[in-house]
């Protein structure tokens, strides 16, 4: 399969290390079979307009097909549609003829407009509004053609159409199913939803009418296995053939015996904690900075992540090389400085806070490291665990002092910053409010100069670091385990794209 060879070349060029996949580039795909996947958690919803949890990643490109496609080396190429930029404010799209959604509804310009208008409608309340930027109108120009116009330049729009904002649902199914659509999910992706038992399994079957041709696999079964030991053991035993993540400390044991490969890619996202700036104690900048000085990210990398990935000091990851600043390393651990800041804030005797994490051994280890290190500075720290599907609700309601805020990442800094750090950003869980940062991120979003954008993102990153609304800890590697019988292509954003994957029988 030549596709594997091309994908590996692209990843190598980006210095994204990938351990050998099972597939020989020349092996013909075998048809049929069921792929069992073990993941940390269920999705929260199957409606792409409301994807807000990290855990939708594992189904989003299976049930839905993006309007445009992102390659493993982060390039935008045609998908269901091709595009051209008419001028600084206008993009024109042409949809392939004959594409249908899984219920037979035509995937045409009217369906595209329906989806984009729905995401943009403030009454709907979709988090995609922030992704879509300053859209002024979506206009159908032909049965398979439409244009999107903006009030100001938005250079990264094609990249946005490769992700959640470019995942369109069947208008017929949305109108017919109403609220039930969230549990059904009808897209134009390679697999359609057969059934979903929450906290049990999500069963998908190959979509015969998929526009690239029926997938080789007959079925995919996604099972939440939150216990990392059980998940890894299930992979080794063959009970599952793919996992969303392999615990860093388990990589060697997972590969022992020779039946499993682990894809290790430099990720696009970050592992961080939002600090609730809307209430005490973290409504005080000095208290937030004291916490920053308390934590040693190198220790987190070594103890929790076993030196996979890299310590993080901000939201711009290394693969985004044109904007990443390797010298940006504020807040080296300084307990004396942390104590000084707490005293200046009126907490010489210490201050209490709780850390909210999902109920997983890895996140508990991270929380315990923060707890131990912060207590040396005078904080009094407790740890609270929630189930993974409740995490997004906790974050959105700001029912926390500091809370685990994972982000799968985007290949443009706008995707890692705008929704987290603008005043009305959908992921501004910290309640962060900086007019200067807001203005910078909006200017960067509107600029067509990559050099100017890089300068603005680095400046905004420095200001965010000084204000300290988030505790950045780690740029996680994408560590996905797979049976050597599975032939597939991993991606650095951790999402599964399995339309051409197949299993050896």
The first-to-last residue Cα distance is: 17 Å
Main beta-sheet annotation: 7 strands, mixed
What amount of the residues lies in strands? 15-25%
Report helical residue fraction: 25-40%
Mean pLDDT, rounded to whole units? 93
The CATH architecture name of the largest domain reads Roll
Number of domains: 3
- Placed side by side, the strands forming the largest sheet appear as 8-9-10-1-11-19-12
Q: How would you sum up the global shape?
A: globular
User: Tally of extended strands?
Assistant: 21
What is CATH's topology name of the largest domain?
A: Dipeptide-binding Protein, domain 3
Computed structural class: alpha+beta
CATH H-level homologous superfamily name of the largest domain:
Dipeptide-binding Protein, Domain 3
- Total helix count? 17
**Radius of gyration, whole Å:** 22 Å
- CATH structural class of the largest domain: Alpha Beta
Low-confidence stretches: 1-25
């Amino acid at each position: 399969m030549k596709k594997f060879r091309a994908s590996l070349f692209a990843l190598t060029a980006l210095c994204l290390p990938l351990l050998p996949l099972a597939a020989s580039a020349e092996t013909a795909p075998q048809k049929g079979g069921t792929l069992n996947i073990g993941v940390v958690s269920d999705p929260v919803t199957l409606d792409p307009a409301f994807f807000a949890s990290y855990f939708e990643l594992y189904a989003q490109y299976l049930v839905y097909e993006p309007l445009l496609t992102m390659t493993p080396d982060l390039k935008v190429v045609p998908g269901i549609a091709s595009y051209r930029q008419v001028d600084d404010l206008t993009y024109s799209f042409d949809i392939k003829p004959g594409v249908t959604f899984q219920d037979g509804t035509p995937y045409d310009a009217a369906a595209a407009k329906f989806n984009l208008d729905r995401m943009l409608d403030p009454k709907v309340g979709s988090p995609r509004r922030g992704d879509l930027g300053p859209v002024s109108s979506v206009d159908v120009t032909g049965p398979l053609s439409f244009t999107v116009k903006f009030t100001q330049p938005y250079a990264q729009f094609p990249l946005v159409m490769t992700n959640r904002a470019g995942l369109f649902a069947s208008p017929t199914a949305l109108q017919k199913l109403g609220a039930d659509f969230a549990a059904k999910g009808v897209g134009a992706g390679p697999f359609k939803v057969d059934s979903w038992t929450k906290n049990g399994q999500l069963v998908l079957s190959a979509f015969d009418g998929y526009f690239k041709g029926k997938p080789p696999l007959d079925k995919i079964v996604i099972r939440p296995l939150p216990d990392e030991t059980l998940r890894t053991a299930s992979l080794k035993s063959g009970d599952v053939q793919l996992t969303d993540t392999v615990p860093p400390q388990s990589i060697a044991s997972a590969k022992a015996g020779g039946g499993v490969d682990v894809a290790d890619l430099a990720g696009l996202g970050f592992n961080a904690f939002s600090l609730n700036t809307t209430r005490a104690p973290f409504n005080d900048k000095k208290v937030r900075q004291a916490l920053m000085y308390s934590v040693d990210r190198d220790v987190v990398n070594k103890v929790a992540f076993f030196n996979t990935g890299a310590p993080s000091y901000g939201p711009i990851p290394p693969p985004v090389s044109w904007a990443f600043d390797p010298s940006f390393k504020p807040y080296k651990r300084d307990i004396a400085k942390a104590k000084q800041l707490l005293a200046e804030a009126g907490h010489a005797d210490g201050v209490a806070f709780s850390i909210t994490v999902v109920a997983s051994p890895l996140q508990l280890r991270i929380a315990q490291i923060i707890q131990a290190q912060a207590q040396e500075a005078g904080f009094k720290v407790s740890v609270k665990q929630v189930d993974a599907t409740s995490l997004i609700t906790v974050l959105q309601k700001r029912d926390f002092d500091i809370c685990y805020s994972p982000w799968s990442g985007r290949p443009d800094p706008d995707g890692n910053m705008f929704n987290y750090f603008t005043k009305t950003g959908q992921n501004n869980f910290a309640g962060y409010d900086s007019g200067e940062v807001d203005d910078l991120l909006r200017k960067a979003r509107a600029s067509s100069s990559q050099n100017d954008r890089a300068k603005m993102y680095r400046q905004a990153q420095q200001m965010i670091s000084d204000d300290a609304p988030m505790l950045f800890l780690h740029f996680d590697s994408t560590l996905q385990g797979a049976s050597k019988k599975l032939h597939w292509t991993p991606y650095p954003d951790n999402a599964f794209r399995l339309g051409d994957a197949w299993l050896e029988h």
